[in-house]
Design brief:
This protein has 162 residues and is α/β, with parallel strands linked by helices. It is 41% helix and 19% strand. The protein is built from 6 helices and 5 strands, in the order E-H-E-H-E-H-E-H-E-H-H. A 5-stranded parallel beta sheet has the order 3-2-1-4-5, sandwiched between helices. Helix 1 links the parallel strand 1 and strand 2. Bound molecules: adenosine-5'-diphosphate (ADP).
């Protein structure tokens, strides 16, 4: 069984993430999308909220599981029996960080392969931080994030609930 993990902060999940998930799920027998606890990014959403949004977003893809983890990514991959770690690349700016992480991960376990999927051009400018900024300033993020994430953002920002 070929299994991969797709780790990230997913704060919140975007259509860019979903595109990577849909494509990666076609390459492996099982894809475990996993929310990283320890991200040092001061997330807007709790681990439970991020996990719940992903569960809802991925429920139409039968070979995708959603989980979360607190350890080193490579250790987590080993613990679920994955042979590969999926990452998405948007622009050259992602490359340097991903390259360093890939080399470090290989040092930790060279049996686990890093697999990079290139962003869909439509989503190349999408990152969770921009979504939060736009939503926070009252802009619409329709079509950029799954509907469930839109609802969570509105609730968190108290938009339309008063
Ligand atoms: P973000 O950078 O949006 O906060 P994460 O930290 O959750 O997202 O990223 C998880 C993985 O998904 C990373 O490999 C990141 O490069 C990738 N990713 C995020 N957004 C996109 C996108 N629009 N297209 C392709 N890959 C993406």
């Amino acid at each position: 069984m070929r299994r991969a993990i797709y780790p990230g902060s997913f704060d919140p999940v975007t259509n860019g993430h979903l595109d990577i998930i849909e494509r990666a799920s076609g390459l492996f027998d099982e894809l475990v999308v996993s929310v990283a606890v320890n991200i040092g990014k001061n997330p807007m959403f709790t681990l439970e909220e991020r996990t719940e949004m992903l569960r809802h977003t991925c429920r139409h893809i039968p070979n995708v599981k959603v989980d979360n983890f607190e350890t080193l990514t490579v250790r987590y991959a080993e613990s679920v029996g994955a042979q590969a770690i999926i990452r998405g690349l948007r622009a050259v700016s992602d490359f340097e960080y991903e390259f360093e992480m890939a080399l470090m991960n290989r040092r930790l376990n060279d049996n686990i392969e890093m697999v990079f999927l290139m962003t869909n051009a439509e989503y190349s400018y999408l990152r969770a931080s921009i979504i939060k900024e736009i939503a926070g300033l009252g802009g619409s993020v329709k079509g950029l994030v799954p509907e469930i994430a839109e609802e969570y953002l509105k609730r968190k920002l108290n938009i339309g609930t008063k």
